[in-house]
Specification:
With 217 residues, the chain is an alpha+beta fold. 38% of the residues lie in helices and 18% in strands. A nine-stranded mixed sheet has the order 4-3-2-1-5-9-8-7-6, with helices on both faces. It starts with a helix and ends in a 12-residue tail after the last helix. The structure holds zinc ion (ZN). The site of zinc ion has 6 residues, from loops.
Length: 217
């Protein structure tokens, strides 16, 4: 699990440097088999150290570390119980959080958004740390890599921690672009056909992966 601890420290430092993690707000976890490494409650994530990452089993019993896990540990475990992902990133990133307060969803306005699975849902509000919140967020994540949590923040998941971080950054970018687009006028959305064409083009061109010249036509 040492590698997971190192990955979480690096991810938290990066997300804080990008402005997505402010102070002690937010939490990050990685699943390895039947154990979950997760940030401790009260840790300043931009200055996180490896001993501020603790381990729990899939039922939430603490199996490693001496600090108390994040108050959102139940949310992380509920996601691992439902979806086949290996990392969860929860932030109070400023624009994502503003969007969670003012919007019911974010329609598909840009083809890159399809990396998150489509329109972004906003899970209805519930008190932090509660099973009710976990149930609502898990539902909002169905067939999605990210969601907003009403009047609270953002959640992103991935098959690796790098992917979950990427999704959290993409969501914050999307919320920023949508805010600016709304300020400029009435945003146009991509039709179902346009979205299907993007997916077909992405598959054909292996979009999103680095390729050497000459590897694809
Ligand atoms: Zn939170």
């Amino acid at each position: 699990m040492t590698e997971a601890h190192q990955q979480i420290v690096a991810a938290c430092h990066r997300l804080a440097a990008e402005g997505l993690l402010i102070g002690t707000a937010g939490n990050v976890s990685v699943r390895v088999g039947d154990r979950v490494a997760v940030t401790a409650t009260g840790a300043v994530l931009g200055e996180l150290t490896e001993d501020q990452v603790v381990e729990v089993d899939l039922d939430g019993r603490q199996v490693g570390g001496s600090l108390v896990p994040t108050s959102e540990v139940y949310l992380h475990l509920s996601i691992y119980q439902k979806y086949d992902v290996a990392a969860v990133v929860h932030t109070h990133a400023p624009v994502s959080t503003a969007a969670s307060i003012s919007l019911g969803s974010i329609p598909v306005i840009h083809y890159q958004q399809l990396l998150l699975g489509g329109d972004v849902r906003v899970a209805p509000y519930a008190t932090f740390g509660t099973p009710e919140l976990a149930v609502r967020v898990v539902a909002a994540l169905e067939h999605r890599a990210a969601a907003l949590m009403a009047n609270h923040g953002a959640i992103a998941i991935g098959v690796t921690l790098d992917k979950a971080v990427e999704h959290a950054l993409l969501l914050e970018w999307l919320c920023t672009v949508y805010r600016d687009a709304v300020a400029m006028g009435k945003p146009a959305t991509l039709s179902r056909k346009q979205q299907e064409d993007v997916v077909a083009a992405a598959i054909a061109r292996n979009y999103g992966t680095v390729q050497k010249a000459g590897e694809t036509e």
